[in-house]
Amino acid sequence: xxxxELNELITRHARSDGTTAIDGVLISKVEQPTPPSPSxxxxxxxxxxxxxxxIALGDRVYDYGAGQYLIASVDLPITGHFTEAGPERPxxxxxxTLHPAAVAELLLQAAPGDLPPAGGNAPSSMAVSDAPAExxxxxxxxxxxxxxxRDITVLAPLIKREILWRLITGEQGAIVRQLGLxxxxxxxIARAVQWIRDHYTQSFRVEDVAQLAGMSVSxxxxxxxxxxxxxxxxxxxxxxxxxxxxxxxxxxxxVTGVGIRVGYDSPSQFSREYRRQFGVxxxxxxxRLRASAAxxxxxxxxxxxxxxx
Length: 309
Fold this sequence. Notes:
The protein is an alpha+beta fold. The chain contains 13 helices and 9 strands. It has helices spanning 4-13, 100-109, 133-144, 152-168, 173-179, 185-198, 206-213, 217-228, 232-250, 255-261, 267-278, 282-291, 293-301; strands at 25-30, 37-40, 44-50, 52-57, 60-65, 68-72, 77-84, 91-97, 126-130.
């Protein structure tokens, strides 16, 4: 597989914030390995064209390099970093935001027999595969539009649909297809994930969130673990700690207040769990974050570990 043209296009058009003139399309160029950084995955396709990256979701680790793509179907708390990058050979990649409505539209238009039957259980929300030539070709044609801005409005939506179709019918198609099925187990779990994210400071009973997701407690727990690699309580803890770290970047002198704001009643518990997650106590991390607040916000807000290819 030849990725040279993709790398040339990314080199020519990469911006510091990763955005492009094409809605939902991200490109990145990173010239040095980065330390592991917490972020949210987003629902994305992330294709590496040069270098390599590692993403951790709960106790699962995903490594992907040049010519491979990662699919993330649910917006989850992850930790990621580039493992191969340098000034002479920077890490480069392409990202495309995945929208459930676009997936659903293609599923409705597919002819009978074009798609394999959907499975009953939720697949993992994240997977890595080798990129087929047809997918890479479509990505190249999409990025070529950056050299012809007047073509973007008409042609970009067509090529993005082609890319999505390649994903739906590809090796990780089950993950993408469930994103567009209103009654899929992944969609039910995504609803619960969103509720926990919106109410992460509150205590909750797993039974109540299972009811919100329309599942029995046993089915909910099993599917939640399959999708997120975490229990619901572990997921809430990840969200709390990531939000705490973002708050400490702007409130480094109020460690106790930050812990309370994200839902911890006990400062000692907050400090203990923070240190377990990030390797240093919050007060020490706050000092480090204060020294590099601008860089930290850039790496945690976007492009996130998965959003940034």
